Amino acid sequence: MGRGSLVARILGGAAGLLLATGLYLGLVVVPPDAVQGDVQRIMYVHVPSIVTAYIAFFVVFCTSILYLWKRDLRLDAVAVSSAEIGVVFTGITLATGMIWGKPTWGVWWTWDARLTLTAILFTIYVGYLMLRAFAEEPLAAARYGAVLAILGFLDIPLNHLAVYWWRTLHQPSSILRPGGPSVASAMLLPLAMNFAGLILLFAYFLVERVRLERIRHRTAEVRLTRGRRG
Amino acid sequence: MKKRKLKYLLAGGIVVAALAGMIYSGVQESMVYFYTPSELVQKKDAVQGKSLRVGGMVVERSIRWDPQTLLLTFQLTDGQGTVFVRHKGTAPDLFKEGAGAVVEGTWTSEGFFRSSNIMAKHSEEYKPPAHPETLESKKELFKSILKEGKP
Predict the structure, then answer these.
(1) Distance from A11 to chain B by nearest Cα, in Å?
(2) Which residue of A129, B18, B108, B122 sits 20 to 30 Å from the alpha carbon of A155, by its own alpha carbon?
């Protein structure tokens, strides 16, 4: 096993630096929220996590479309890798959201549109990974997976608009909203750093996970040409 | 290989069932996650005894709290209709007059809403407090608590 490419190491290092600074600023330096107090600091993890998950699933969406068009397994390798990372970040969002919800709303969970659609997003891509594991033929796994990933992506724009279309307990967006961010400027800096840090961390994971997937493909090829059974 | 396949089928079935269940109960319910006070006032006879949520603003100076019986009463409004709410127990820290809240419970024949769960709504605005806490102010607070605690 190699130690990973120079690109991967730079991505990982930059992500670590940004996240360390962003978390230090967010958890220690900037003032707490006027209404919620210190518990509001969960925002510095919660919001960048879901945006990173959205980006990960957008990568799955694009590479899945391209895969169905070009039928190149290298595209599929990016899709499955990105989906795994997206599931992890959605899980982090759900967990931090519950921890934030209990002291502020008073409940860990409620079935409003925003929370329900986020749980569905998590289930769709867990299902995507299971569907792929279930298909015995790699080409079938890639094809079924691509279709599910493309359909499943629709949940994301729906989830973004859910807080405007329906009554929810969850408050509307603080960053991507009409009229600009509703977060005080002092709080925007650590938020932006964690955004950048998590996106770089995602890129680092993706590069490494794709490398692993390529090794898997090559191993499978070698086995096939030698006529051995797995 | 057969066993493996069965395992995945079973797991896949559970995910599909969970997803269908969530879409059915979750999203359908979420479409009308809560009624507004004026909607509830309009259709109160139709929904009497049914589990539902009401969301609105807590009316200023409407909160009454009896620490002996743990009875909490207040009014929720959307500017047009007002609903009287009775709740046994405590409310979340962010629950206060002039702020948003969503309550779960039932509309009773006696003309009030019996709440079994209070959820505080908060806005999407985040800003530092006007008078930020300093180490000095924390020390002062700590001293004052110690003094009050003395018999």
Answers:
(1) 31
(2) B122
ipTM of the complex: 0.83
Listed in sequence order, the residues at least 6 apart from B99 whose beta carbon sits closer than 8 Å to its beta carbon are: B57, B58, B120, B121, B122
- Check whether residue B27 and residue B39 sit in a common domain: no
Query: pTM for this structure?
Result: 0.85
pLDDT digits (tens, 9 = 90+) for B38-81: 999 998 788 888 899 999 999 999 999 999 999 999 999 999 99
Q: Given an 8 Å threshold on Cβ–Cβ distance, is B123 in contact with A171?
A: yes
What is d(CA A23, CA A16) in angstroms, rounded to the nearest whole number? 10
B143 found inside a domain: no
Tens digit of pLDDT for each residue in A47-76? 999 999 999 999 999 999 999 999 999 999
Asked if the Cβ–Cβ distance from B33 to A166 is below 8 Å, we say: yes
Q: Do B129 and A40 touch (CB under 8 A)?
A: no
Residues B90 and B25 grouped into a single domain: no
Rounded to an integer, what is the distance from CA B111 to the centroid of its chain? 20
Same domain flag for B78 and B13: no
